[in-house]
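lol ok so funny story. i was supposed to be doing the assay writeup but got distracted and ended up predicting the structure for this chain instead. priorities right. anyway since i did it might as well share w the group, maybe its usefull for someone
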Amino acid sequence: MKHGGKRKGSGRKSKSDEVSLIEKLSPLEPYALEALAKGVKEGDFKFVQLYLNYYAGKPVENKNIQLTEDIPIFVD
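and the output, tada:
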């Protein structure tokens, strides 16, 4: 099965599609913010996590990798 190259429907949507979606969703913004506020006030972890990820940004992930042998690493 081929995975590379151009495929119908792949890639980023055009700016006009993006703007159109934002225009459709804009009337729902107050309800979404109200639901988020309600979830945060109730102390629901997922709502608090979502709020903090957008408000303060996600914390930097550190990955500690240790190699015990002198084996070359090949990345495709």
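Residues 29-58 form one domain. Residues 29-41 form the longest helix (13 residues).
back to the writeup now i swear
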